[in-house]
Request: fold
Amino acid sequence: MANSKSSVVLPFLVGVVASLVLGWWAFPKVLYSQKTQPIRFDHVVHVEGQAMTCDQCHTYRENGSYAGLPTTAACADCHSDVQGEDPEEQRFVTEYVQQGKEVEWLVYQYQPDNVYFSHIAHKDIECTKCHLDVANMKNPPVYYENRISGYSKNTMKMWECERCHAQNGASNACFVCHK
Amino acid sequence: MGLDRRSFISLVAGGVVGSLATPVVWKTLDDVSIWSQNWPWIPRLKYGEETLLPSLCKLGTDAYGVQVKLVAGHPVAAYGNPEHPLSRGGICPLGAASVQLLYSPSRVRSPKKRVGNSFEDISWEEAEALLAEQLKSAGKDVALVSGDDTGTAAEVLAGLVAALGSQQAYFMPSEGAAAAAALKLLGGDGLVGYDLEGADYVLLLGADALGAWGTTLRNAKAFADGRERAVRVVYVGPAMTATAAVADAWIPCTPGTEGVVAMGLANMILERRSPSKVAGLAEFRKQAAGFTPDAVATRSGVAAETLLGLAKELLAAGKPLVVPGTTAAQGLAVSDAAAALAVNVLLDRINMPGGVMVLPWGPKVVAAAPDKKAMMGRDVVGYLAAVAAGNAPAPKVLLVHAANPAYALPDLKTAQTALDKAGFVVSFSSFMDETAAQADLILPDSLTYERYDDAYTPYGSGQANYTMAAPILKQPLFATKAAADVALGVASKLGADLGFASFEDVLKAKAEALGLDFEAAATGSVWLGTEFAVQQLDLAKVQAPASAATAADLTLVPVANLKIGSPKVATPPFGTNAISPRELQGKDMVVAMNAATASKLGVRAGDAVTLSGAGGECRARVRIFEGVVDGAVMAPLGLGHTAWDAFSRGKGANVFQILGTQADVAGFTRFATAPVGVRKA
Amino acid sequence: MQHMEFKVKWGMVIDLDKCTGCGACSIACRAENNIPPMQDASNKLRTTDWMNIYELSNGKKFPDLEIAYLPRPCMQCGKPSCSTVCPVVATTKDEEGGIVSQVYPRCIGCRYCMAACPYHARYFNWFDPIWPEGMEKTLTPYVSARPRGVVEKCTFCHHRFNAAKEQARMSGADPLDLPEDAYIPACAEVCPTGAIVFGNLKNPEHRVAKLAASKYAFRLLARLGTDPQVYYYSKRDWVRQLGDNYLQKELKGGEHV
Reply:
């Protein structure tokens, strides 16, 4: 019975440490599945190589709604035929442009149907405040999908929207964001 | 050194305590709650660019322009078209449900051939070959029944039938045909229209103008505008219809006596004003003299002083307009229409602003086709009755287009007998309607949103008009084909070339005939005619109207109701909720009568009753409603489908089953009201 | 809950002398707001109709009977009874314009709001939202599909308000000072007789404001003090009297039964 004291404290601490490690390191690995974009889109080659601006592809429509990601037809304005050496571009042209198919891009900031977001109402805010800074990435980042909820890991939580609205004096009324 | 029980519990406890400081519990709880918000069986929304494309709604008896909203190229909703003169932004209940109707469970998704008691899906090649073979062996014994009396598709189909040597091409019954027949009776020639926008006093003799009669949406806009200008609208009819509910006055009359009221008014007008330059006035005066205020009051139930009031209002108004019609939006007596027309003549309201407008028949482009005038002059009810009775040869092949004669014809049993007698019934229905369900071959037509379509001057229009609709979907959703294209194909196969390779080409010719740019027409430009034929009307030809069902103690007043359906379509999936307990309770149709009638019949509110009429019996429940004249039973049209889908099948009863017919002048049949019996079920 | 005042008050005036009860508004609403169709809609205790149409009658015998049709959207009450009883703040009246919100993922389906609403404007989803096969492709992107077990109601087509604000921002206009007709709900847009007029009740230039100020305008159960943003209009006395009709033999104020 001499070591009875240590046999309680040490296992307890081991348990605490182990669960902290599991919870902070292993759990996120298990919780999210990793997905890659259907096409390895290179922003840098467009932004720096072709000197394109963001709003050439990510446009507002005439009614003020946001077109978001460009359609295959919009990409085909330039990529009706293969332009360069990149095999991914070649794949895009043959598998999507020539077949008239839309690319099922994975949207990092995916929001569910019950959320309404107006880009034009936020147009004075830096894109990177909410979005990943993909403009400077040659490879699209890994998309982490929550195995339970199905949402993207980068999906903004409601409290984040609310905090920014509160800080900027914008309304936090329910219907500002819900539909 | 083993791990004893104490240490183990301690380890677990440490693990639990530690985990509370990790996201495991909290994140999982949060994610699970989000997961529970998005069950897999709840559909997700699709996003994309929104566009509005103009099209047509021809689901009712009307035809008017709509706008269809597409999201990422897919239609999601239909709205009225503010640019279209016949809708001006309004939409009818069927139009509002039209986009969803594209996916109706009752859509026929591929051609079908009857095999015994069921259908077999076949390819279009096989279906068209079968049609050609049947038509070939039928020779001249071919007939057509079309419900599309505004579209060129019917012209193509009638052209096919005519090219095969048959004259048996019919439209389903319409008030337009009855009104045109009345005009013809008086020596006129053309389509009858009403300049509701220009009138400053509108007397509706039975026409449920805001319910389902004529250019319903345009009528509604004209009514609303008229309110601002203090235009008085008076409704004469046996029941409190949608129109009567908002009209400035409702004058109840015995069912089917609107023509009698018109003659009474004519008589009173003639006593007070003798119009000049009216041909046949002397003869007409003699006719009208029999319709003394007292005689009219006895027959119609409209008191003499009320009638006098109406006559005075008509005479005092600057631009009065008298509009004949029925609550059923069909089955109007030609004699009633002629009597109303005569009143308009006496008031000098023909081809005058705010009056009755005589509109030109549209141009014909399929040379082989019969004139629309000739086709509208034929009575399908009489023809089918003759076939049923063996007085006319049964067609070896019967083509049914945009129509459901196995459901929507009066004296239904007779019509069905005629359909049974036909050798081979071909239905072009987009839906598994009652006619398709008993057809030998179904060649599903595409719906308007999936093909070209057009409409020339729907009945009631104040001026001639033409609207074309290009397909808003790049291709049909299912293996359907435009009926006109099928007809053109089979015609050339049979060596009876109609002169066009496609329906699109036919419409190009039609646009050209009207002096209209095809591209502009296909993108929503509406053609408006401004010419009105000079008419020499002769009142000597007016035949004094008889009251319908005069001998009956009890009269059935069927009321068309677009939210329940039309002769063409059953209640669409999006329409079920709009049907009220005043029309349908559970599976029972609700019929309305006033308390006096009910007590005479010994029935009470909610009682199940059996209605009996010419062709049979049906079940209903009683509603006590004081908006029905004594001795009348008001019943909603459009219920009681036996085919279609779960949204309409087996709900209520089909009033056409008990709706008898009565011979009318000019070879027509009147059936807007009929005798009925009511007894407790 | 504190009563909020707004600069803009979206409101509706429904002219009951023009409504024919045709049902187009109700069906257009269903399509616009993704309300699933029902095969059997005869049990009105289980149906969902954001825009419901009632028939009113003057109660007289033939031939003196008169009827009127009364379309009933959500009244968007100035002092809503529903939001104050919601235990989870799933329904609020807190946004500029005064539209009473309803957030479906937050609703727990307790139905207190339904009991509280004197207008029967709220509906409980008794069934899963199922469309016939393929018809789900006609869902609009405007309103999320609601699961079984939550309450919903008319939102004055709030998404159209959002769309109008986006359009205003795009064209450099003030999104909170929308011109008349820049934002109207689907029901008002499609009404064949134009019986439904929509606009800002606080803008005297808007037709709604003028009509609402008419002596023929009235509100349903106005004496309850819910301050609805939906007005009705009728020149017929009996119609207006029915608007506040509680009891056939009503006692005067202060009396108790």
Observations:
- Strands of chain C lie at 10-15, 52-57, 67-72, 122-124, 151-153, 196-200, 217-218, 230-233.
- Chain C touches chain B through 64 residues (CB under 8 Å).
